[in-house]
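Problem 3 from the worked examples.
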Amino acid sequence: MPSSKARHSDSIERRASPGGGGGGTMSTSRDYSVNLSVQQVLSLWVQGATLQHFAEMWYWVFLWCLFSSLFVHGAVGLLMLVMLQRHKRGRLITLVLVSVGFLASLSGGVITSAAVAGVYRVAGKDMAPLEALVLGVGQTSLSVVISFSRILATL
């Protein structure tokens, strides 16, 4: 029967340091894999049932916000190109306005996705992949509604 020391050493690896010094670093063989693949996000497939880490939640919500924002800004950019095709500087105006709008929604998406993931993490709640989709697309939808409403003019 192996000793408890031998059994314990099976779960711990000793690796040499890159500097070539005699000391090694200890690392446990626990699996802390996070689901940060774009393919997993688009297919709504997660290893395990839910998103548990802050980085996973933030990344998934942010990517859905990014993809929906790309879709909205792409559609609006095409509409602007068609409507401004006879204008002297129509292409330049389209490029500048779509770029500024996308960058503004991108920076807002980073902040709000982090806030949503932080609330979920502090509450100790796991996030389902479909919740990340709804929250990410909801951020873009809310941004479109606020942009077209007169609420900002009243502030």
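Problem 4, a separate protein:
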Amino acid sequence: MLRPGANFRENNDNEIKLPDCDSEAFSSYVAFLYTGKIFSQFTKSEDELAREEGMLFSLLKLADFLQDDLLHNCVIDTFVAQVKQNYFTCKLITRACEAFPIHSPFVRLLQALCVQNKLDMPFDDVRSAHDTSEFWFLVAQGKEKEWETGRARRRVDAFEVEDVCAYHIHEDGKRC
């Protein structure tokens, strides 16, 4: 794209359109390109947590749009680090189910976190035109497996992602 002589629409228009990418997410992406890191605020303020969730969500959508596996994996790692210190909101589940396939790495990560009780919610906040019933069914199956194997979490703060690599995108099947 934007390469001299290339026959792409972006080259002819001299612009690249990034759908659903706000300025904060794009600034974070540019910083990521220079540093290889995502700078995230680990906060407990409800408003700041919602803003941070939104920025990470936008970055993840941008990573998938650009097919940037490195960015995708870094967003997943940052989100996991964020959730270790805070909960995440039910609104994020609805947004994820609207934007990604049910078996995408990010939606599977959210399911695993719900199984481990890392969701901050009243359930009455789960109103959407998008049907999330398949998501919740998979969470219920995960909880059932936890109870059957005796691994059910007794403490809400006993959060672990045993294999964060399972939620990464890998080129040619190579794992982290």
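Solution to problem 4. DSSP finds seven helices and two strands in the chain. The first strand starts at residue 88 and ends at 89.
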